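Deviation from plan, reported transparently: thymidine-5'-phosphate complex.
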Amino acid sequence: MQGKFITLEGIEGSGKSTNLKVIKDIFDQNKIDYVITREPGGGPLGPHLRKLLLDKDQSISPSVEMLLMMADRKDHVDNLIKPNLDKGVWVISDRYLDSTIAYQGGGRQLDINLITSLSAALKLPSPDFTLLFDLPVDVALHRAEERSELDRFEREPKDFHSRIRDSYLELASNNHRIRTVDSSKDIESVSMQVEKYLTDFLNA
Ligand code: TMP
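Because the crystal trials were delayed, the predicted structure below was used instead.
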């Protein structure tokens, strides 16, 4: 049986990575065989592409940025995501195609049809389930600033991040596979939401 494909999405500092532990615990308790991966960077070419894409000293045009994200994704899908799903292993990816729609479509204001057409042409699989970590941009950027040195995306102005948040919320309102976690709450409450949504998905 095919594995299930689960993705985590959200703006900078939204708590995706912090909640991986909760997700792993639920999968372990349910004896599910899984791999955890991320974008950009999950395929064999990924480490090079990720370094280039996040480098604050690189100047990359919006279209080139989108194409590099899609190249990274195709490499990731063909070499890690699909082979695992095909042998029944579940894949949890920290970011996937919704990130390109929100960041390059919403943030950089590229044509979303171009992104979805390219995705279809490349035969990229659609996730079975997505958790969107959502919180106000000010709070999220403050968390990101406290965490580490800001990368090329984190340095963008607030309105860039606001457009990304709006795109994510629009995607969530149009897609039943996306569940929105209120990430502005305390750690305990966020973990409980993640646990509930994931358990509901597993029992569906
Ligand atoms: P992160 O994995 O540490 O969140 O950083 C990845 C950065 O890359 C983040 O700022 C979002 C950005 N990104 C895009 O702009 N488009 C994409 O398609 C993906 C996967 C990530």
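The helical segments are 20-29, 46-54, 62-86, 97-107, 112-121, 137-147, 158-174, 187-203. We consider this an acceptable substitute for the interim report.
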